[in-house]
Protein backbone atom coordinates (compact mmCIF):
# COMPACT_ATOMS: atom_id res chain seq x y z
CA UNK A 1 0.00 0.00 0.00
CA UNK A 2 1.09 3.57 -0.67
CA UNK A 3 0.49 6.36 1.85
CA UNK A 4 1.07 9.99 0.98
CA UNK A 5 2.30 12.26 3.78
CA UNK A 6 2.01 15.96 3.02
CA UNK A 7 3.84 18.65 4.96
CA UNK A 8 1.61 21.69 4.24
CA UNK A 9 4.37 24.15 5.17
CA UNK A 10 7.15 24.74 2.64
CA UNK A 11 10.17 23.66 4.72
CA UNK A 12 11.66 20.56 3.13
CA UNK A 13 13.96 19.78 6.07
CA UNK A 14 10.88 19.39 8.28
CA UNK A 15 9.37 17.03 5.69
CA UNK A 16 12.50 14.89 6.07
CA UNK A 17 11.88 14.61 9.83
CA UNK A 18 8.20 13.82 9.19
CA UNK A 19 8.97 11.21 6.50
CA UNK A 20 11.50 9.42 8.74
CA UNK A 21 9.00 9.27 11.61
CA UNK A 22 6.31 7.91 9.27
CA UNK A 23 8.60 5.22 7.87
CA UNK A 24 9.78 4.22 11.35
CA UNK A 25 6.27 2.93 12.23
CA UNK A 26 4.92 1.96 8.79
CA UNK A 27 4.41 -1.75 8.15
CA UNK A 28 6.80 -3.55 5.81
CA UNK A 29 4.33 -3.44 2.91
CA UNK A 30 3.62 0.25 3.23
CA UNK A 31 5.39 2.70 0.94
CA UNK A 32 5.48 6.16 2.50
CA UNK A 33 5.69 9.06 0.03
CA UNK A 34 6.50 12.28 1.93
CA UNK A 35 6.10 15.57 0.07
CA UNK A 36 6.45 19.29 0.82
CA UNK A 37 3.92 21.86 -0.32
CA UNK A 38 5.30 24.03 -3.10
CA UNK A 39 3.47 27.19 -2.08
CA UNK A 40 2.68 28.99 1.18
CA UNK A 41 4.26 29.67 4.59
CA UNK A 42 7.60 28.15 5.69
CA UNK A 43 5.83 27.28 8.95
CA UNK A 44 2.18 27.32 10.05
CA UNK A 45 1.61 29.35 13.19
CA UNK A 46 -1.96 30.53 13.54
CA UNK A 47 -5.01 31.09 11.38
CA UNK A 48 -3.54 33.23 8.59
CA UNK A 49 -0.66 30.82 7.84
CA UNK A 50 -3.13 27.95 8.05
CA UNK A 51 -5.51 29.50 5.49
CA UNK A 52 -2.72 30.25 3.02
CA UNK A 53 -1.26 26.75 3.36
CA UNK A 54 -4.43 25.06 2.11
CA UNK A 55 -4.09 25.53 -1.71
CA UNK A 56 -0.60 23.99 -1.76
CA UNK A 57 -1.81 21.10 0.40
CA UNK A 58 -4.73 20.37 -1.96
CA UNK A 59 -2.42 20.38 -5.00
CA UNK A 60 -0.14 17.77 -3.36
CA UNK A 61 -3.03 15.53 -2.26
CA UNK A 62 -4.63 15.64 -5.72
CA UNK A 63 -1.28 14.79 -7.32
CA UNK A 64 -0.64 11.99 -4.81
CA UNK A 65 -4.07 10.45 -5.43
CA UNK A 66 -3.45 10.54 -9.19
CA UNK A 67 -0.07 8.87 -8.60
CA UNK A 68 -1.70 5.95 -6.78
CA UNK A 69 -1.69 6.87 -3.08
CA UNK A 70 -4.38 4.93 -1.20
CA UNK A 71 -4.54 7.37 1.71
CA UNK A 72 -3.22 10.83 2.54
CA UNK A 73 -1.95 12.29 5.80
CA UNK A 74 -1.91 16.00 6.63
CA UNK A 75 1.29 16.42 8.63
CA UNK A 76 0.44 19.63 10.45
CA UNK A 77 -1.04 19.61 13.94
CA UNK A 78 -3.69 22.15 12.93
CA UNK A 79 -5.16 19.46 10.64
CA UNK A 80 -4.81 22.20 8.01
CA UNK A 81 -7.45 21.99 5.27
CA UNK A 82 -8.69 18.59 6.48
CA UNK A 83 -12.34 19.08 5.51
CA UNK A 84 -11.53 20.56 2.09
CA UNK A 85 -9.10 17.72 1.39
CA UNK A 86 -11.69 15.10 2.39
CA UNK A 87 -14.23 16.72 0.05
CA UNK A 88 -11.78 16.93 -2.89
CA UNK A 89 -10.10 13.52 -2.54
CA UNK A 90 -11.64 10.10 -2.98
CA UNK A 91 -9.03 8.44 -0.80
CA UNK A 92 -9.14 8.70 3.01
CA UNK A 93 -7.41 11.75 4.51
CA UNK A 94 -6.10 11.64 8.10
CA UNK A 95 -5.05 14.69 10.14
CA UNK A 96 -2.26 14.16 12.69
CA UNK A 97 -4.11 16.01 15.47
CA UNK A 98 -7.25 13.89 15.19
CA UNK A 99 -5.13 10.75 14.88
CA UNK A 100 -2.99 11.58 17.94
CA UNK A 101 -5.97 12.47 20.14
CA UNK A 102 -7.80 9.28 19.26
CA UNK A 103 -4.73 7.18 20.07
CA UNK A 104 -4.23 9.07 23.36
CA UNK A 105 -7.85 8.42 24.30
CA UNK A 106 -7.21 4.67 24.06
CA UNK A 107 -4.39 4.70 26.64
CA UNK A 108 -5.08 7.54 29.09
CA UNK A 109 -8.00 9.28 30.76
CA UNK A 110 -6.29 12.65 30.96
CA UNK A 111 -3.68 13.91 28.51
CA UNK A 112 -2.06 17.17 27.51
CA UNK A 113 -1.19 18.44 24.06
CA UNK A 114 2.00 20.50 24.05
CA UNK A 115 2.12 22.67 20.96
CA UNK A 116 4.55 25.35 19.79
CA UNK A 117 3.56 29.03 19.79
CA UNK A 118 0.91 30.76 21.86
CA UNK A 119 -0.97 31.63 18.65
CA UNK A 120 -1.28 27.90 17.90
CA UNK A 121 -2.89 27.32 21.28
CA UNK A 122 -6.45 28.43 20.46
CA UNK A 123 -6.69 26.66 17.07
CA UNK A 124 -5.56 23.42 18.75
CA UNK A 125 -8.04 23.88 21.61
CA UNK A 126 -10.77 24.27 19.00
CA UNK A 127 -9.74 20.94 17.45
CA UNK A 128 -9.75 19.25 20.85
CA UNK A 129 -13.30 20.53 21.29
CA UNK A 130 -14.30 19.49 17.77
CA UNK A 131 -12.94 15.96 18.26
CA UNK A 132 -14.89 15.57 21.50
CA UNK A 133 -11.86 15.47 23.79
CA UNK A 134 -12.40 18.71 25.72
CA UNK A 135 -13.13 16.83 28.98
CA UNK A 136 -9.91 14.82 28.79
CA UNK A 137 -7.31 16.89 26.93
CA UNK A 138 -5.53 20.06 27.98
CA UNK A 139 -3.52 22.21 25.59
CA UNK A 140 -0.29 23.99 26.41
CA UNK A 141 2.18 26.00 24.31
CA UNK A 142 5.92 25.67 24.88
CA UNK A 143 6.37 29.13 23.35
CA UNK A 144 8.75 27.97 20.61
CA UNK A 145 8.62 29.00 16.92
CA UNK A 146 7.92 25.95 14.75
CA UNK A 147 11.20 26.21 12.84
CA UNK A 148 13.22 26.43 16.09
CA UNK A 149 12.56 22.69 16.32
CA UNK A 150 14.87 22.32 13.32
CA UNK A 151 17.77 23.97 15.20
CA UNK A 152 19.30 21.90 18.04
CA UNK A 153 20.96 25.06 19.40
CA UNK A 154 17.67 26.98 19.68
CA UNK A 155 16.76 25.63 23.12
CA UNK A 156 13.38 24.52 21.76
CA UNK A 157 13.75 20.94 23.01
CA UNK A 158 14.54 22.18 26.54
CA UNK A 159 11.49 24.47 26.52
CA UNK A 160 9.38 21.55 25.32
CA UNK A 161 10.71 19.38 28.15
CA UNK A 162 9.90 22.10 30.66
CA UNK A 163 6.31 22.34 29.43
CA UNK A 164 5.89 18.56 29.52
CA UNK A 165 7.10 18.52 33.13
CA UNK A 166 4.54 21.22 34.00
CA UNK A 167 1.78 19.28 32.20
CA UNK A 168 2.55 16.16 34.23
CA UNK A 169 2.63 18.18 37.44
CA UNK A 170 -0.11 20.78 37.04
CA UNK A 171 -2.52 19.00 34.64
CA UNK A 172 -1.91 15.58 36.17
CA UNK A 173 -1.55 14.41 32.59
CA UNK A 174 -1.24 10.65 32.13
CA UNK A 175 0.07 10.97 28.58
CA UNK A 176 1.55 13.69 26.38
CA UNK A 177 0.58 14.50 22.78
CA UNK A 178 3.25 16.32 20.76
CA UNK A 179 1.46 19.27 19.16
CA UNK A 180 3.62 19.76 16.05
CA UNK A 181 4.74 17.53 13.18
CA UNK A 182 8.23 18.91 13.68
CA UNK A 183 8.40 17.15 17.07
CA UNK A 184 7.87 13.70 15.49
CA UNK A 185 11.49 12.65 16.02
CA UNK A 186 11.42 13.45 19.76
CA UNK A 187 8.61 11.10 20.91
CA UNK A 188 10.65 8.00 21.77
CA UNK A 189 13.32 9.78 23.82
CA UNK A 190 10.75 11.93 25.67
CA UNK A 191 8.72 8.80 26.49
CA UNK A 192 11.82 7.15 27.94
CA UNK A 193 12.75 10.32 29.85
CA UNK A 194 9.34 11.07 31.39
CA UNK A 195 8.09 7.48 31.75
CA UNK A 196 4.63 8.23 30.31
CA UNK A 197 3.20 7.60 26.83
CA UNK A 198 4.31 10.36 24.45
CA UNK A 199 2.26 10.36 21.24
CA UNK A 200 3.53 11.61 17.89
CA UNK A 201 0.68 12.42 15.50
CA UNK A 202 2.59 11.42 12.36
CA UNK A 203 3.06 7.85 13.57
CA UNK A 204 -0.51 7.70 14.88
CA UNK A 205 -1.82 8.85 11.49
CA UNK A 206 0.23 6.27 9.56
CA UNK A 207 -1.24 3.41 11.60
CA UNK A 208 -4.77 4.74 11.18
CA UNK A 209 -4.31 5.25 7.45
CA UNK A 210 -3.06 1.66 7.17
CA UNK A 211 -6.13 0.48 9.11
CA UNK A 212 -8.52 2.36 6.81
CA UNK A 213 -6.86 0.90 3.71
CA UNK A 214 -6.85 -2.61 5.19
CA UNK A 215 -10.54 -2.25 6.06
CA UNK A 216 -11.32 -1.03 2.53
CA UNK A 217 -12.81 2.17 3.95
CA UNK A 218 -12.66 5.68 2.52
CA UNK A 219 -14.33 9.05 3.05
CA UNK A 220 -18.10 8.98 2.55
CA UNK A 221 -19.12 10.99 -0.47
CA UNK A 222 -22.68 11.34 0.82
CA UNK A 223 -23.16 14.79 2.37
CA UNK A 224 -20.45 16.98 3.88
CA UNK A 225 -17.52 15.37 2.06
CA UNK A 226 -19.20 15.02 -1.36
CA UNK A 227 -16.86 16.12 -4.14
CA UNK A 228 -17.08 19.90 -4.74
CA UNK A 229 -19.49 21.06 -7.40
CA UNK A 230 -17.92 22.06 -10.70
CA UNK A 231 -17.93 25.82 -11.14
CA UNK A 232 -15.58 28.49 -12.46
CA UNK A 233 -13.04 30.03 -10.07
CA UNK A 234 -11.72 33.52 -10.85
CA UNK A 235 -8.39 35.28 -10.48
CA UNK A 236 -5.26 33.73 -9.00
CA UNK A 237 -7.22 30.64 -7.96
CA UNK A 238 -8.72 29.92 -11.39
CA UNK A 239 -6.72 26.68 -11.62
CA UNK A 240 -8.27 25.51 -8.32
CA UNK A 241 -11.74 25.24 -9.82
CA UNK A 242 -13.22 21.89 -8.69
CA UNK A 243 -12.13 19.21 -11.03
CA UNK A 244 -9.25 21.40 -12.33
CA UNK A 245 -6.92 20.62 -9.37
CA UNK A 246 -7.79 16.93 -9.43
CA UNK A 247 -7.42 16.78 -13.23
CA UNK A 248 -4.07 18.61 -13.52
C1 LIG B 1 2.81 21.94 12.48
N1 LIG B 1 2.79 24.20 12.23
O1 LIG B 1 2.61 20.79 12.89
C2 LIG B 1 2.13 23.15 13.03
C3 LIG B 1 2.31 23.30 14.50
C4 LIG B 1 1.71 24.56 15.02
O2 LIG B 1 4.18 24.26 10.45
N2 LIG B 1 3.60 22.28 11.45
C5 LIG B 1 3.57 23.63 11.31
O3 LIG B 1 2.35 25.26 15.75
O4 LIG B 1 0.58 24.87 14.70
List descriptors.
binds [(4R)-2,5-dioxoimidazolidin-4-yl]acetic acid; 2 domains; four-stranded parallel sheet; alpha/beta; 9 helices; single chain; 248 residues; Rossmann fold; globular
Please tell me about this protein's structure.
This protein has 248 residues and is α/β, with parallel strands linked by helices. It has two domains: 2-95 and 204-247, Rossmann fold; 97-201, Rossmann fold, CATH 3.40.50. It has helices at 12-25, 47-66, 82-88, 96-107, 118-130, 156-170, 187-194, 201-214, 244-247, and strands at residues 2-7, 31-36, 71-74, 93-95, 111-115, 137-141, 175-179, 198-200. β3 (71-74), α3 and β4 form a beta-alpha-beta unit. α1 (12-25) crosses α8. The radius of gyration is 17 Å and the shape is globular. 48% of the residues are buried. [(4R)-2,5-dioxoimidazolidin-4-yl]acetic acid binds at residues 9, 43-45, 76-78, 115-117, 120, 146, 180-182. GO terms for molecular function: amino-acid racemase activity; hydantoin racemase activity.
Instruction: Output the CATH topology of the largest domain.
Output: Rossmann fold
Strand order of the largest sheet: 2-1-3-4
Q: How is the biggest beta sheet arranged?
A: 4 strands, parallel
CATH class of the largest domain: Alpha Beta
Mean pLDDT equals 97
* Number of DSSP strand runs: 8
**For the CA atoms, what is the radius of gyration?**
17 Å
Helical residues, percent? 40-55%
Report the oligomer.
single chain
Question: Counting H and I runs of at least 4 residues, what is the number of helices?
Answer: 9
Written as H for each helix and E for each strand, in order along the chain, the element string is: EHEHEHEHEHEHEHEHH
Q: So what's the overall shape? A: globular
Enumerate the spans where pLDDT stays under 50 for 5 or more consecutive residues. none
Tally of domains:
2
CATH architecture of the largest domain: 3-Layer(aba) Sandwich
Bound compounds, each kind once, are: [(4R)-2,5-dioxoimidazolidin-4-yl]acetic acid
Q: N- to C-terminal separation?
A: 23 Å
Strand percentage lies at: 5-15%
Instruction: Tell me the structural class.
Output: alpha/beta
EC number: 5.1.99.5
Enzyme class: isomerase
GO molecular function, one term: amino-acid racemase activity
Family: Belongs to the HyuE racemase family.
Amino acid sequence: MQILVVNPNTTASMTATIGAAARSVASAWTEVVAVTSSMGPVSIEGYYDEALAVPGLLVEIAAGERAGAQAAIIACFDDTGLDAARAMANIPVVGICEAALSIASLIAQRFTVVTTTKRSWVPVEALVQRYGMAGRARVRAADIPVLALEDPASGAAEKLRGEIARALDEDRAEAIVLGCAGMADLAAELQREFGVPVIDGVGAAVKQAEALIALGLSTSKRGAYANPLAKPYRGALESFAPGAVAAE
